[in-house]
Amino acid sequence: MKKVYLSGILLLLGITVMAQTGQVPSGPAPMKPEMTEFYEPEVRVVQPATILGMAPSDAIILFDGNDINREWEDSEGKPTRWVVRDGALVCVKGAGIIRTKRKFNDFQLHIEWRTPAEVVGDGQGRGNSGVFLQGLYEVQVLDSYNNRTYRQGQAGSIYKQYAPLVNASRKPGEWQTYDIIYTAPRFSSDSTQYFTPPRVTVLHNGVLIQNNVSLRGPTLYIGIPEYSIRKHGAEPLVLQDHGDPVAFRNIWIREL
Amino acid sequence: MKKVYLSGILLLLGITVMAQTGQVPSGPAPMKPEMTEFYEPEVRVVQPATILGMAPSDAIILFDGNDINREWEDSEGKPTRWVVRDGALVCVKGAGIIRTKRKFNDFQLHIEWRTPAEVVGDGQGRGNSGVFLQGLYEVQVLDSYNNRTYRQGQAGSIYKQYAPLVNASRKPGEWQTYDIIYTAPRFSSDSTQYFTPPRVTVLHNGVLIQNNVSLRGPTLYIGIPEYSIRKHGAEPLVLQDHGDPVAFRNIWIREL
Amino acid sequence: MKKVYLSGILLLLGITVMAQTGQVPSGPAPMKPEMTEFYEPEVRVVQPATILGMAPSDAIILFDGNDINREWEDSEGKPTRWVVRDGALVCVKGAGIIRTKRKFNDFQLHIEWRTPAEVVGDGQGRGNSGVFLQGLYEVQVLDSYNNRTYRQGQAGSIYKQYAPLVNASRKPGEWQTYDIIYTAPRFSSDSTQYFTPPRVTVLHNGVLIQNNVSLRGPTLYIGIPEYSIRKHGAEPLVLQDHGDPVAFRNIWIREL
Amino acid sequence: MKKVYLSGILLLLGITVMAQTGQVPSGPAPMKPEMTEFYEPEVRVVQPATILGMAPSDAIILFDGNDINREWEDSEGKPTRWVVRDGALVCVKGAGIIRTKRKFNDFQLHIEWRTPAEVVGDGQGRGNSGVFLQGLYEVQVLDSYNNRTYRQGQAGSIYKQYAPLVNASRKPGEWQTYDIIYTAPRFSSDSTQYFTPPRVTVLHNGVLIQNNVSLRGPTLYIGIPEYSIRKHGAEPLVLQDHGDPVAFRNIWIREL
Fold it and tell me: Which residues are CB-neighbours of C79 under 8 A, at least 6 positions away?
């Protein structure tokens, strides 16, 4: 901002004049720049990565290309049957979902995913998986490159709630990125109502596709999300097994 | 989502039973998956860039490393005295602000900036510039690497309104990125009040530093923003001349 | 607020000291009361009624106990077949809805209604009518005194969207009041999406039953409201003909 | 709502057809009314008062015209020196604030107040008191009948934050009402920031004067409210002693 220097003497005089006249003032007494400058507490320093998409210094690395079992487990808390192949975490059909051992509230998440280069099936049957925020709210993973399905079921949709603003999909077999900003719900005393709903922003391959949308309730395949709301706290991140060998890599999260 | 197959016959029977008993139903009649699947209108396709941070196919390129004058002008609508050096747009002290010839409402903006490698001055006097959204709301540009100033005046602050969540600054002389999601205000019939305030999300070098904050009013160096609100529509993007030779490059914007 | 008197001289000295030391200040420079006092524009004067529930001086009287046709018409813009009886506006079965000739955006509405003293039918079949805000969003009118129906279908519900917080119904045959604060939706450029949804607060017989709820979309008897959103501007107020001789009186509205 | 009867058989057939053709459906499969009807849990019954402004059955009576000490105390938790006169609670100059012994979060509040019939002083010096929601957020009480002061300091203002939408004041010596709907703030993990700010709706003598405004922070006579935010939970209701013999009566509150 450009600096403007006020005379403190004039400031004082101005106020004195106002007090003497008894008129309705034309405006409030003037301020000085220093009145709106706060130094404490100092803002915490974070070391950003040298390349966009890589983890900054305060991120929790959820998958680094090697060990699945450090941060992930299956739905029963046991080691998963998903596999590591070429540094990627690959879904094995029938192995079921995987979830993080940690639980999260509000966060910034980066995750990369790839659907099979060899195209099999169509609609919901091609390269289907999902990133479930707090295990309840799905950002759809799907091969949506030249593959029409219902709007709120394609890649980048909040499944059955919000279609993506645009379809920014890459070709099958190419790595794609989601950068997700998630704000967890807060609940009213009535545990079946949100006080504030979950909110989600998603960038798909760097393109904004969900702009702080307010979720209606947990993701449902059948039914109306509003009526499935139940109070919850911190919950794990979940990756879906929808039967397709979708791969994931470079997964990191920052708690907000 | 996992698929669950319901029998339509059972569904019908279930409804019939409910109608006959006259009891309060224990829950609503069941739905089918197809009842929440919408195909129209088809989601528009956008070609993402191959590298994060580069422009997707539907972006307006505001600076491509060559011509300043195609998209920018000075505060009087004339050619600016800012210069192009090594493919970057560099502020010339005393040349004044530059603004886009186009005007924008809601948008996604990518902009890269660099403060001088040779450190001169301190606090607000080191590598100071600014990105003014709609010409009114400043995301501060400053060399905030080992350079303490007031919280809401450092790099990534919404100047004098919101400190950044963290300080994700790179060293002076290094290129830094802002990815900004901006929602313009809507006004009440009283033109001095927002119906909904402007909202801003900022990622600094890929790190979330402003999470959908609601602005209090136009950026002020002196005073209280709430009392400076005046109705406006689409407005240009503005880069500030604060006297320091700050450089900018790879500027693109997507209207939302 | 309690008044605190600051010495302007001390204020000036304080600032001077800060400038000399070059230390990080412990807090911002102090302000004076007059800096946050604004006199213009003067707030408009409204004469309140002497009794709660009666119209203040700036209200539009939509029904004063006599003439239906001044402010109301049927769905084709013709005179309605609803009748005036004992100073009340009474629904005639088969006459269809009535709507105001005027159109409204945001408003405060007071309306009184009475279901028949002689109870006929049950559930949705007893004293059913409705107040449609902007012709699209129904606040349910029903005899809900000892008359169970589905939660979001009883008196004071936002029909099929929000059950009332409590059931504050009077007995059939008694006059009841709704005081409604309504904020119209604003639309995104995509005309099938709200930028901000309609919001409704309702007091039923003086008891808060809807607390600034965000509507999901136009009221639907069958289906999901979100998918029926279509852009609209100012719209009339509508009273429903559901076949029961529900009466209305003392209807006034203030545009906000 | 008008009832529409669908044939379950046709519904089934419709779905079958869609599955066979393999075309993009023109719309989702149709629903039935019962799919959006929920009966549980039953909505709680409240007995409204027979006259608008009087307490419903679930209200806590904070002052019934007799005993001050049952619900109120001074700022040190001791009996107050305010007095009961003609069934009203009257401020005694120098006695200090009074506060409720109970603490509240979200609530609906009804309170009646009267400034002295004999006019003394002007501006902030005439019939000044205040209703502090959660002890922190002031709805101003003032004789604002033909008594100009700063906008956000007159009767019905959220003191130094929001002027009332209109001036609905009665004459000095007449009883006036406030009906207040208050939503307490929720805090982020950073205890100096609101996750959601406090929100206030006020009806003054039945006229809407504050429409769900978002408070900037605790009420301040001097300074900027945003920088005084500190985490708090349930807090008492407070009535201010500003030196004038303002009277209060018929005070009741409903926790939300």
Answer: C68, C69, C73
